[in-house]
Design goal:
Pathway: One-carbon metabolism; tetrahydrofolate interconversion
Oligomer: single chain
Number of strands: 11
Order of helices and strands: EHEHEHEHHHEHEHEEEEEH
CATH topology of the largest domain: Rossmann fold
Family: Belongs to the tetrahydrofolate dehydrogenase/cyclohydrolase family.
Protein name: Bifunctional protein FolD
Subunit structure: Homodimer.
Distance between the termini: 49 Å
Strand order of the largest sheet: 1-11-8-7-5-6
Pfam families: THF_DHG_CYH, THF_DHG_CYH_C
Bound molecules: guanine
Length: 291
């Protein structure tokens, strides 16, 4: 079997065009232009690439966007002061503080300082809580991107066995919540799936992964999912973005393409979908805040 490619670049472009059309219609109706403020602290090269890509995607879709670049020596008080300013700025509907932050800064304190209505990453505990009880204000971007990459390629997770390798706050945990939840009008990305979270302490990772109809690799370990872990005909989503010898590699071994029915590539799979969902959330934030 040679896996069908789950093309996030193409789907991302389609969905960005949908956002751009909604933004244009909104502005033509005299409403506010959605605006995203991104904050980046320090010199992490991967973070700078992500923020640049987010900035360009916003501009292309007609959103207002600002990037605040702070030095690696920034203090927590300075960063909190900037977040407070963005919280109060009526032109800013979404605030994104790029992670990781330098070690002198308490990441939790900063994420809690972002006013929940502008928390387009869905990292604030209030928004995580709303997601957990099935009434999401926003969906976190990467899990939401995975949901659409599956659903819009004809792989509805409803009733399926999903195994997620990885339990991070950014991907594994919120994705597991979303995919296990009941799909309702208030929770359209509820997956109605049977979900297992696997991680570094899972006893027999291969046996657990082979149960999956849909296997999501989100461990942050290069090629941790090997062909023998994949049941023939399963759908595999690779969330990994690991840098190896200057090259971007995923969490899924190349050989999985010969076993899986469908596989998302790295790059060009989940990454472009994450950015697309950020645009979706910024538009939603403008609608929440300004109407
Ligand atoms: N670092 C890695 N992924 C993300 C993300 O989705 N949002 C932010 N803010 N930082 C990240």
């Amino acid at each position: 079997m040679t896996a069908t490619r789950l093309d996030g670049k193409a789907l991302g472009q389609t969905m960005r065009a949908e956002v751009a059309a909604e933004v244009a219609a909104r502005v033509a109706a005299g409403k506010s232009r959605p605006g995203l403020a991104a904050v980046i602290v320090g010199d992490n090269p991967a973070s700078h690439v992500y923020v640049r890509n987010k900035h360009k995607a916003c501009t292309d879709a007609g959103l207002a966007t600002w990037v605040h670049t702070l030095p690696a020596t920034t203090t927590q008080a300075e960063l909190l002061a900037l977040v407070a300013r963005l919280n109060a700025d009526p032109a800013v509907h979404g605030i994104l503080v790029q992670l990781p932050l330098p070690k002198q800064i308490d990441e939790d304190a900063v994420l809690r300082a972002v006013t929940p209505a502008k928390d387009v990453d869905c990292f604030h505990p209030e928004n995580v809580g709303l997601l957990a009880v099935g009434h999401p204000r926003y969906y976190p971007c990467t899990p939401h991107g995975v949901f659409h990459l599956l659903a819009r390629n004809g792989f509805d997770p409803a009733g399926k066995e999903v195994v997620i390798v990885g339990r991070s706050n950014i991907v594994g945990k919120p994705l597991a919540l979303m995919l296990a939840q009941k799909r309702t009008a208030a929770n359209p990305a509820g997956g109605d799936a049977t979900v297992t979270i696997a991680h570094t302490r899972t006893a027999d990772l291969t046996a657990v992964c082979r149960r999956a109809d849909i296997l999501v690799a989100a461990a942050g370990v290069p090629r941790v999912v090997t062909p023998e872990m994949v049941r023939p005909g399963a759908v595999v989503v690779d969330v990994g973005t690991n840098s190896m010898d200057g090259k971007l590699v995923g969490d899924v071994h190349e050989g999985v393409a010969a076993v899986a029915a469908a596989l998302s590539p790295v790059p060009g799979g989940v990454g472009p979908m994450t950015i697309t969902m950020l645009l979706v959330n910024t538009l939603a934030a403008a609608e929440h805040i300004d109407g």
